Amino acid sequence: MPRPPAIVLALAAALAAAPAHGAEAGTRRLYPVCKGGKWGYIDRAGALVVAPRFEAAAPFSEGLAAVALEGKHGYIDLTGQMVLVPEQERAGSLHRSFASGLAAVRGGDSIGFIDRSGKLVIPAAFTSAEDFSEGLAFAYT
């Protein structure tokens, strides 16, 4: 049986060095909703919290949600304010969600990971990478 790629261990080590971040801020949870062709966010009661103005919107993860606004891709906080626009390209139609404090981004033809400040903490050296879960991410070069 072949050994697991060393890259998985490298990702686990990098994650151990990254600062930990909790789940959703407080108990407030918001959900994407499309109205009039634009995306916004509602709460559990269905009340509109973030007005629909985004071309695309992902669910919140670790207090941030990936969105597209006027051709700019980044992350908003629970108030709907754009708080992070990564220098790197997105690794999908939108930026990927944060998991374990990290989100996958594209650097050229490779994938790496940024932290919540937008700093590239795992270099873009992977052909493919999944999101982190329980401190690990599947990736290969």
The rough form would be described as globular
- Helical segment count: 1
Q: Could you report the average pLDDT, rounded to the nearest whole number? A: 84
Strand percent estimate: 35-45%
Number of strands: 13
Compressed to H and E, one letter per element, the order equals HEEEEEEEEEEEEE
Helix content: under 10%
What would you say this structure looks like, in words?
This protein is mainly beta and 141 residues long. It is built from one helix and 13 strands. It has a four-stranded antiparallel β-sheet, with no helix packed on it. The longest helix is centred in the N-terminal third of the chain and has 12 residues. It is globular and about 45 Å long.
